[in-house]
Every structure is written in C-alpha cells, then in structure tokens.
Automatic annotation (TrEMBL):
Lineage: Bacteria, Pseudomonadati, Bacteroidota, Cytophagia, Cytophagales
Gene3D superfamilies in the record: 3.40.50.20, ATP-grasp fold, A domain, ATP-grasp fold, B domain
Catalytic reactions of this protein: 2 D-alanine + ATP = D-alanyl-D-alanine + ADP + phosphate + H(+)
Name under which the protein is recorded: D-alanine--D-alanine ligase
Family: Belongs to the D-alanine--D-alanine ligase family.
Entry GO CC: cytoplasm
Domain of life: Bacteria
GO MF terms held by the record: ATP binding; D-alanine-D-alanine ligase activity; metal ion binding
Amino acid sequence: MHNCAPIRVGLFFGGSSREREISFAAGRTIYDQLDRKFFEPLPIFVDSIGNFILLHWKYLYQSSIREIYPPAASTTRFLGIPLYIESLTTPNSDDNANFIAPIGKKIEPADFTKHFDIAFLCLHGPYGEDGTIQGLLEWYQIPYSGSAILPAALGLNKVFQRKILQNAGFLLPRSLILSQKKWLDTTHKSELFHEIITTLGLPFVVKSSTQGSSIGVSIVKDHGLSSFITAMHRAFFIEEVSYAIWKEYTLEEQKNWFNRLIDVREGIGFPLLVEGQILYTPDALLAYIELHFQKKQDAILLISAQAEEEIIIESFIQGREFSCVVLEAEKGKTITLPPTEILKGNMHFDYKAKYLPGMVRKQTPMVLPSLLLDAIRKEAAALFQLLGFQVYARIDGFLTNDNQIYLNDPNTTAGMHPSSFLFHQAAEIGLNPTQLITFIIKRSLEVRKEKGSLFAYALLQRLITMLVNT
C-alpha cells in the first residue's frame, strides 16, 4: 500500500452551453467512477453565468440542473416551469450568493489550488470545449484533462475545421457556409432554397457550426419551403412567433411553448434578442408578445443571445454511421479503439436519439471486414494527429456503400454518461470506466509535464508512486 495523499480532482461540469445537461450527467458519472485509492473527487458545478460552485455531492444525483439550481421557489418558476439561472440574475448581481448558498460554495479561480490539484473537464460546447476554460486553467498553472487551448478550439469550430481537413485531403461532402446576417437579409427565402438544392441536391443537412450532441441539426428531405425555414432557424437558434398561431393557443399550449423555448436542448433559451431589445425572462417575453400583437399582426422573430454567427449546409451522406475513440499513449502514439456503429434505422441521430435509452442500438465493434475496420481506425488517428488533439477524443463519421470514409464532428471532450461510446469502446480493450479515467488523468499529467508544468510533474510522480505500490 502507498502512503501518498490522494490527488484532489476538481470535476468541472455544467457550463453555459446548450450541452450543459449532458455535462451535468458526465460529472456524476466521473464522480462515481473515480478510483478513490488514488483520487479525491471535488464536484465543481459551473453555472451558466460563470460562477464556479463547489457543489455538495448529494445534488449530483438529480436528473437535471434545473431541479437543483436555482433552488426551487416561486421566484424561480414561470407558469410552473423551472428556469435556468440566466433568466433570474446577472453575473455580478448580489442575488447570486442567495442562489448558490443552498447547494454549495462559490470559489474563485485564484483559489482553485486551495481546493484541487488537477481539473477533470466534463464541460461541452462553447466556454468548455473551445479552449476558454483551458486558457483560464493555464493562466493559474493548473493541470487539466484532455486537449490544450488550440486543439480544443479547432475541435469545436466546424467551419475552420473543414478548411483544415480539406487542405489535408480528407473526404468531405459538398457544402455551403451561410452567415446569420445573410439569412436575415434574404427576403426571398425560396430563391436561396432553390440555389442550395441546385448546388447540393436533396436531401441535405443543416447544422450549427459550434454545437455538439446533434443540437441544431436537421435534415431537409423535400422541396417544402416551411421545413427548410424551420431547419435554418433551428441551426441559427431563431424562433418565429406568428399572430395566427399565438392567438389560438390555450394557456396550456402557451405553457408548453415556453417550456420548449426555455429548454436549451430544444429551444433557443434565454436571454434572447427581439427588435434590438434583450429579454432575460419569460415574463418579459410574454408581456412583449401580448403588447406587440395588440398593435399589429406581424410575426415576431426571436434570436438567441447565443445564436450561431454562421451555419453549415452540406449534402447528405448515405451510409453507415460510426463513432471512433482515439487515445493518446506515451510520446504521442495513438491507440484507436474499435469503432461503434449507430444502428438507427431511418431515424435521425439527434439529441434525443443519442441520450435517451432505447432510442437507437449501438454495435461495438462495428461489424465489418478487418481491412475496413483498420481503415476507419487509421483515418480517425490521422485526424486526431492533424488537429493536434491530446489524451483522447471521439471522432464520428460515415462509411458509404462504396466504402468511402467521411469523418466529421471530432469531440475533444467525449460524452461520459454510463452508456457512452467512450466506455463501450474502452471495454473492448479490457478497460472498465474507472481504469479509463485513471488513464486519462495520468496521460493528461504527462502532456502538461511535457509542456513544462512543474506542478504536473510533481503530481505525476505522486500518481506513479501510488500506482506502483498498490
């Protein structure tokens, strides 16, 4: 047995992105699976306005963020619907302390090292998977898991990423990039729709450029203009409210509409922009809608404050969908795990299909001749190295009927819920979740040490001592 004190691991989860609920679930998984012989977990809940909260562990076991934060009270609900914190307060408000105190303790970045030795990042999307939190931790010289600032940023920005992949010779579907400004300025949407069909054909895929978990993704299958506009609005996080529909809503239907709007996984969320105004709360929006329709019947266009500046429209790839995890071993060598096939039938592999149990089946490893399996793994490893990823990543793609491999949507922070691709594939090489997490922490310390972190060097030596003497 070793006599070293466990390494304190700050588990960062939550965040402000549309994937915050997935991140919350991942934090719970890592907390449960972390090897207590070597590590002491400290749950750090990052709220959607930038507070870092040392969370009491019991709150990890709620099904969603809104069940615990803000604390349940009449002031945190609208028509009985729980709200996210950004609808109730601002980052510097004095009210924040009252919201935080019931669930934990706010900590400042300058004090991180008083609480933990290394940060394990379970954050997804903007501000968590784009180099932002990595930069903050670099500033305070705190080791962290996964890729560094630049590869994290490259992994999230799909537009810039495409340029790199294209220059490197990777296969990519035909595509167009459209800015929000051009979309809003386009008066004749039908003409734009016709241009896209002429260029890409049908069906085609519309997707946001900085989102993961299939949020903001739609497949346009026919010539229906309304379904095209709906897909574009979904990718840009725009909601149109028409007078004809709104006036027919019952109170219950209004409640259902607001419930969907507030949910950042399906709706555009708050705050939002409307005709130059910023609205932070559903109450303010309801008042605006009622007043607007008293005066005129023009449709209202609501735009998320976290809207996409540009989106990607690409031709649909007909083929078998897969996901492949790549691990980085010593000296930058890669270990590509057996890819998983997503067996979804005719279903679009959207957010619900990814995360609700029983929606799709996963086959690990993918049933293919060994030559094709090796080709997929080789291609995934090449992309991992091209983008400079570190420690681990999940890379998705398609295998067409003529055995062409198209890679897309690399993730530097792979999902870590219990049935995730990461754990599925690690099991195929004999690693259980606890062993895999230990590997990720150890390799992350090695990477940070190689970049000159003396603190990472000391922690790594401590961890090696514990591993050897256990």
